Amino acid sequence: MAAAIIDGKAIAQDIRTELKKEIEKLKANGVTPGLAVILVGDDQASHTYVRNKDKACAEVGIHSEIYRYPADLSEEVLLQKVAELNEDPAIHGILVQLPLPAHLSEDKVIDAISPEKDVDGFHPVNVGKMAIGKEAFYSCTPYGIIKMLERENISLEGKHVVVVGRSNIVGKPAALLSLKESATVTVCHSKTKDLSAFTRQADVVIAAVGKAKFLKKDDFKPGAIIIDVGMNRDENGKLCGDVDFESAKETAAAITPVPGGVGPMTITMLLYNTVQSAKQKAQQAVK
Ligand SMILES: Nc1nc2c(c(=O)[nH]1)N[C@@H](CN(C=O)c1ccc(C(=O)N[C@@H](CCC(=O)O)C(=O)O)cc1)CN2
Ligand SMILES: [Mg+2]
Question: Considering Cα of 127, then 132, then 136, then 142, what sign does the dihedral take?
Answer without folding.
Answer: positive
